[in-house]
Amino acid sequence: MVWVVRTKIQREEQFINGITLNQTYFFGGANLFYQKAVFYLSIYLLYYTRKYLILRRTIIEYSGMAEYNFREVEKKWQQKWAQDGTYKTEIKEDKPKFYSLDMFPYPSGAGLHVGHPLGYIASDIVSRFKRLKGFNVLHPMGFDAFGLPAEQYAIQTGQHPAITTEQNIARYKEQLKKIGFCFDWDREVQTCDPSYYKWTQWIFMQLFNSWYNTSADKAEPIESLIGYFEKNGNHKLTAACDEDTPSITAADWATYSDNEKQEFLLKYRLAYLAEMTVNWCPALGTVLSNDEVKDGFSERGGHPVEKKKMMQWMMRITAYASRLLDGLNTIDWPEPLKEMQRHWIGRSYGAELTFDVADHALEIKVFTTRIDTIYGVTYMAIAPESELVDMITTEAQKEAIKAYVEKAVNRSERDRMSDVKTVSGVFTGAFAINPFNGEKIQIWVADYVLAGYGTGAVMAVPAHDSRDYAFAKHFGLEIRPVVEGGNLEEEAFDGKEGKIINSDFLNGLEVKDAIQKAITFIEDKKLGKGKIQFRMRDAIFARQRYWGEPIPVYFENGVPHLMDEQELPLVLPEVDAYLPTEDGAPPLGRAKNWKTAGGSPIEMSTMPGWAGSSWYFYRYMDAQNDTAFADRKALDYWQDVDLYIGGSEHATGHLLYARFWAKFLFDRGFAPKEEPFKKLVNQGMIQGRSNYVYRVSGQNTYVSHGLRGQYDTAAMHVDVALCDNDMLDIEGFKKWRSDLANAEFILEDGKYICGAEVEKMSKSKYNVVTPDDIIENYGADTLRMYEMFLGPLEQSKPWNTNGIDGVYKFLRRFWRMLMDEKGDVHLSNAAPSKDELRVLHKTLKKIEEDVERLSLNTSVSTFMIAVNELTALKCNARKIMEPLTIALSPFAPHISEEIWAKLGHTSSINDATYPAWDEKYMVQDSIEYPIAINGKMRMKMEFAADTPAQEVEEAVLASSELQKWLEGKTPRKIIVVPKKIVNIVI
Ligand code: ANZ
C-alpha cells in the first residue's frame, strides 16, 4: 500500500510537471482571440489544479500515508494476532507467572470514552513488558454485566436487559479491540452469563453452608457447628453470630424441630436471612448498601432513600473484620485506599457497660472506648431510633420527644455524623444509674448518637469528648474533669495521656492503666466486658430487582433451604415486566412457576451488583471450566493478581467484598491465597473539557463569552465537537438541534467564543471524546502513547489533544529512521558507535525502571529523547534500532510488530526478549561543554568526562577562541557546572 500511494504521488507529480510543460501547446492556434481566451482560462485552471494537487500531496504526506500507514498496519496486525492466537494464555510450569488485571467494566450504553482505557493501556504495557521479560502473563478482560442501568432501560422500553447488555458488550469489545490490547479473549467472562453465575450461586451456597469459628479464626463447614450443638449446645462456642443469639444446651438443640434448627443455624451462617433496617429507595424499588447512598440520596439517580425494616439476605462480613484490617498490612496498595478501608472497617478497642434505668426494670448498654472516664459521666444519650425511647420517656416529655425523633430519623447517618455545628437533643425525663458510683444521670435523646454503631447509646463525658462537650455547653449540663490537663473553659480535653482525677479507685493512674483496671472491675462485677467494636456492618446481599443472579434458595415452612447443586445454574426466568408485582413482590414474583419441582417457592430477590465482581479474577484463571469455578491446577499456578489497576471509587465496595470472598474461599480450601490482589494502583480520572454558550434569558439569542456580563444569561453546554479552540461553529450549532435552527448570536470581533471548563467526561455535558475518534485520526499506537504521555497514571487530568501531534510525529520519525522511501528497512549491519550504544543502553534501562514503577509518562518522553539523540547521531545501525523496537513494542505494539516483520523476523515481537542493558555502555567518555559569556552561548569545548572542574576552567581560559570573545577584557568570574556548562562573566 505504501508503494501504491507513492506511485500515485509520482503520477500526480508527473501530472503537475506536465501541466507546466504543456502550456506551450496553447501558443500555436489560428483564432487569436479565441486562443487568448482559452489560454488565460487554461492558465487559470492549471494554476488552481496545480495548487490543489500540491496541497493534496502535502496533506497526504503530512498524514503519514506516504510513509507509515497506521490504518492498514494496525488492522493487519490486529487480525493476525487474533488468527495466530498471539495472546492465548496457557499454564506454563517452566515460566514464572504474572497476572495483570483491570477492573472489568460495566458495559453502559454510552460506550467507552478516552478516560476508560487509561488504566487498561497501562496494564497492557506492563503485561507486554513482562512477557518480553520471560513471564507467562495472564491479561484477561470481561464484563460486569448485571446492573441497574440495563434494567432501568428495560423498564422504559420493555426490551430484555440481556439484549441491551449484549449490544453494549459488542460495542465495548469492538472499541477495545481497536486499541490493540493483548487480552486473551478466550478467557472473557460476562457475569450475566449462566455458565458464569452458576459459580456465583455455587459460592453463595458455600457461604450459606459455613460458619465462622473465631478461635480457629476461619470459616468452617456448617456440619462441624451442628456437631458442636449436638454435644454442647452453644456453650463456650466462639463463633460469629447474630447479637440476639440465645444460649442453648445440647438438650435444647435435641428438642428443636427441623425448622427450629434451621432458624437457629441462620444465626451463624455466613450467608443468612435476617430482619434488618435497610436503606430503601422507593424510586428504584430496591434496597441500597451504605456505600450506594450519599447524603440520604441514591448514588445512582439521586433518589431519596429511607430507612425500612425488611427480611434480607446478608453476608456476615463482620466475621472477617479483623482479618480484613490486618491483611492490609501485607499488600502493596496505595496508602489512602488502605486508609479508606481501615476507616470503613473501623476497629475500636473499648468496653461494653450496662447502666440501670432508674424506676424501670430496664437497662441501657453503652459502648465506650474511654471507660477510664466513667466518673466524668454527667448524662447519657440514646439514638432517636432506640426502642428505649418510648419505654422511658415521661409523660411531660412525650410531645417534645416525638417531634424531635420524627425529624431526626429522617436525617442520614452521614449528615448526623459530619454535622458537628448543630447541637440538638431532648431530655426524656428518665434517669440512669452510674454503676460505679450510683449517681443518677439524665437520659437524653440526641441525633449525634447513631443507632447502627455500638449499642446506640453513649455514656457522655463532656470534659473529654468534644461532641459531648458541645452538647453539655448547649444544654447547660455539668462538665466534670476526670483526666488532668487541657482547658475546659475552651474545649474538651480528649488527650489519651494524663493522670486520672476525681475518680475514686482510678485516681492517679495513667489513662491506659485506668482503662485496664476499669475493665477488670466491670468483668469481675458482671457489669460489662472489654469489647472490640467495628464500624463495619454485615453486608446486605439482595436486591428486589430483576437483572441479577437468582439466589438458589427455596422456602419450606418459611425457612430457607439451598437448592441442589445439580440444579445450578438457577437461570433467571422470563417475566412480563421488569417491575415489582402489584402486591410489592420483586419482579421475579411475576415469573411463571417460580417454584421447585416439589412446589416450594423460590427466593424472589436477586444478588447485588457486587456478587459477580467478587470472584471474577479466579474465573479468568480457568474461564471455560464447567465442573468447577476454576480447576485447582489453574488456581495453584496463577495464585493471585500481581497487578490490579482500577478506580479508587471501589475502595469500600468491590475491593472489600472481593477480599472477603477470597479469604472465605481460602479458609474453605477452595483458593490458594487469602489476599487476592498483591499490588493495586488507582489510575486517575481523565476529565473532559466542556464548552458553554450563553443564552440570553427568555430568547433564542446567544451571547459570546466576553460579552455575557452585559446580559442576563444562562450557561448551556454545547457539544465540544462544534468548537474549535473555543470558537463556535455557528452553522453547525444551528443544525445541532431543531430548536436552535433560528438562533441568533451576539458576536465579539465577528466570532462566537464559548466558555470552557474542566469537568467529568459525560454524555450529558457533551464533552465526550471517544477513543474511536482518536484512532481514526491518529491510530491506536498514538492513542496508547498519548494517554500515557498525558501525565502520571495516578493523577487526574483533563483530556486535551494539544500534544497528540508530538506523539504522532514521534512514531513517524521512528519509522523513518528504519525505513527508506519505499518502506523497506535501510539499516546498516556495521558495529554501532559508542555514542549510539550509550543512548540505547540508557534508554533500555530507563524504560525498564519506568515500567516497573508504572511511570509510563516518563517512558514516552524517554523514547522521544532517544530518537532525537539517535537522529543527531545519524544512527542507522540495526544493532541499535532493533532492540529499541522491542522496547517500544509494549507501548506501540502495531508499528513495532510491523517493523519487526520488516526486519525479517517470522515470529511475533511479543515472543522476543527484552534486551539486556549494561551500565558499561552508559558512561560518557567525553563531554562537550557549551561555554556561555554573559549568558550567551558562544563556543563549545570537548573534555574527557572525568576532567576535574579546575582543569576545565584552566583550559577554557587558555583557549585562543575564548580570547576572540573576550575582546581584551578579563573575565570577572568563571563557573564550571561539571558535565554541563561553563559560564563566564566579563
Ligand atoms: C465515653 C467517652 C468518653 C467516649 C470520652 C469518648 C471519649 P470510636 O472510637 O469511633 O469507636 N459512641 C459510642 N457509640 C456511639 C454511637 N452509637 N453514636 C455516636 N457515638 C457513639 O468511638 C467510640 C466512642 O464514641 C465511644 O466512647 C462513645 O463515646 C461514642 F472521653 O464513651 B465514648
SSE layout and pairings?
Layout: H1 2-21, H2 32-62, H3 70-84, E1 97-102, H4 117-132, E2 136-138, H5 148-157, H6 161-178, H7 194-208, E3 210-213, E4 218-221, H8 222-232, H9 250-255, H10 258-266, E5 271-281, E6 286-288, E7 293-294, E8 297-298, E9 306-315, H11 321-327, H12 335-345, E10 347-357, E11 363-368, E12 379-382, H13 388-392, H14 398-409, H15 413-418, E13 426-433, E14 440-445, E15 457-460, H16 466-475, H17 511-524, E16 528-534, E17 539-540, E18 553-556, E19 559-562, H18 610-613, H19 616-619, H20 632-638, E20 643-646, H21 654-667, E21 680-682, E22 686-696, E23 701-703, E24 713-718, E25 723-724, E26 727-728, H22 730-736, E27 744-746, E28 755-759, H23 771-778, H24 780-789, E29 797-798, H25 804-818, H26 834-853, H27 856-872, H28 878-888, H29 893-902, E30 926-933, E31 936-944, H30 949-958, H31 960-966, E32 973-977, E33 981-985
Helix pairs in contact: 1-2, 3-29, 5-6, 23-24, 24-25, 24-27, 25-27, 26-27, 26-28, 28-29
Ligand ANZ binds next to strand 11 and strand 15.
